């Protein structure tokens, strides 16, 4: 295969080339069935094998305990912003930790179905810090506490999940792990429910992963659509309605690829090295800048700025010409953003740093 450009998109994001090649080879005929995976009945034997293996591989990769259900859904992260309160709020109060745009959106949407409160916020630092758990105002009546464990736009990541019990709360913790799932281990002892769109680190858009502790099922509000009732989805093995079959297949191939790489521990090791390479370079430079507090910095999404923003367009054009794609920052933050998901090799980060150095010299 010819070398592909390095794609720094925040999502939909680069997939491992090996996964795309396997899918290409199996496109017209999956394992002698004479059918593409997208042409198969979701109730047939072949797809049954694909989804069962995908779930088993994901469970083993992420060390998901037996008392959690794995649900393959649709609707994306924003869909879950409604689906979670419809299933878990019991119409009562829920507490949100605001750490950036995505948790803010979650809080706003939940307000349509529950009493959505703010337990903590980093808005005063423009979402560049992590609100310290000891300062969170969690109500005794909270049905759950929601946080976004990696803020894709602001580049802020919780490197440790809070222990709500130690904070005096029995509420389950809900995490939106869309943009760092499978980049590091998850401490399931601290989690009640985790959700994420697949399109950053697991596969293509269209698949939404939900991992939910069994005791949280069965409390959906009467207005909850049946196809979004976690109990119904779980009882039907994620096939109450037609699941996103091709996206599940590609995610399954990605899980196998992750296993071949050495699993989540190895991915975490690589992700730490990749992020350190870029942050260290930015921090040493007087030409570029990252504004997130060091202890809050995301390994996955690294927003950065040129000190002289009039050079942004030239920077992006030069990057594109070198095969460094999709580096433009989110419009709400501006500047640049490099997303370093699992499929980004360290060579891609080296190529980016080389280019940044070169560009700085040219502008001197
Ligand atoms: N949460 C996070 C952390 C995200 O990064 C995104 C998408 N960028 C979403 C939620 C929204 O996901 P979707 O577009 O799949 O609804």
From TrEMBL:
Its EC number is 2.6.1.52. GO terms for molecular function: O-phospho-L-serine:2-oxoglutarate aminotransferase activity; pyridoxal phosphate binding. It comes from Hydrogenophaga crocea. Homodimer. L-glutamate binds at residue 43. Binds 1 pyridoxal phosphate per subunit. This is Phosphoserine aminotransferase. The keyword Cytoplasm applies. It catalyses: 4-(phosphooxy)-L-threonine + 2-oxoglutarate = (R)-3-hydroxy-2-oxo-4-phosphooxybutanoate + L-glutamate; O-phospho-L-serine + 2-oxoglutarate = 3-phosphooxypyruvate + L-glutamate. Pathway: Cofactor biosynthesis; pyridoxine 5'-phosphate biosynthesis; pyridoxine 5'-phosphate from D-erythrose 4-phosphate: step 3/5; Amino-acid biosynthesis; L-serine biosynthesis; L-serine from 3-phospho-D-glycerate: step 2/3. The modification N6-(pyridoxal phosphate)lysine is found at residue 200. Residues 6-352 form the Aminotransferase class V domain. Its cofactor is pyridoxal 5'-phosphate. The lineage of its organism: Bacteria, Pseudomonadati, Pseudomonadota, Betaproteobacteria, Burkholderiales. Pyridoxal 5'-phosphate binds at residues 102, 152, 176, 199, 241-242.
């Amino acid at each position: 295969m010819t070398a592909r450009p390095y794609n720094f998109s925040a999502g939909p994001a680069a997939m491992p080339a090996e996964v795309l090649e396997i899918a290409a080879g199996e496109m017209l005929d999956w394992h002698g069935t004479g059918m593409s995976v997208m042409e198969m009945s979701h109730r047939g034997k072949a797809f049954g094998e694909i989804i069962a293996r995908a779930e088993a591989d994901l469970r083993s990769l992420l060390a998901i305990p037996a008392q959690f259900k794995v649900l393959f859904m649709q609707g994306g992260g924003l869909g879950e912003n409604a689906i979670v309160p419809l299933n878990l709020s019991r119409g009562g109060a829920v507490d949100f930790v605001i750490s950036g745009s995505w948790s803010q959106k979650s809080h706003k949407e939940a307000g349509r179905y529950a009493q959505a409160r703010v337990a903590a916020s980093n808005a005063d630092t423009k979402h560049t810090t992590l609100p310290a758990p000891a300062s969170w105002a969690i109500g005794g009546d909270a049905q759950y506490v929601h946080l976004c464990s990696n803020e894709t736009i602001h580049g802020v990541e919780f490197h440790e999940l809070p222990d709500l019990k130690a904070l005096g709360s029995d509420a389950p913790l809900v995490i939106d792990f869309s943009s760092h799932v499978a980049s590091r281990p998850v401490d399931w002892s601290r989690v009640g429910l985790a959700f994420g769109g697949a399109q950053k680190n697991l596969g293509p858009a269209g698949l939404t992963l939900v991992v939910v502790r069994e005791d949280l099922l069965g409390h959906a509000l009467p207005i909850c659509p049946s196809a979004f009732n976690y109990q119904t989805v779980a009882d039907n093995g994620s096939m109450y309605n037609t699941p996103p079959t091709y996206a599940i297949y590609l995610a399954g191939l990605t899980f196998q690829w992750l296993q071949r790489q050495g699993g989540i521990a190895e991915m975490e090791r690589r992700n730490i090295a990749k992020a350190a390479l870029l942050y260290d370079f930015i921090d040493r430079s007087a030409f570029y800048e990252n504004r997130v507090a060091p202890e809050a910095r995301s390994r996955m999404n690294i927003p950065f700025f040129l000190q002289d923003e009039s050079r942004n367009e030239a920077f992006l054009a030069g990057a594109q010409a070198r095969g460094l794609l999709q580096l433009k920052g989110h419009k709400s933050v501006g500047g640049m953003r490099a997303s370093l998901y699992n499929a980004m090799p360290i060579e891609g980060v080296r190529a980016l740093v080389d280019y940044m150095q070169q560009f700085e010299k040219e502008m001197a």
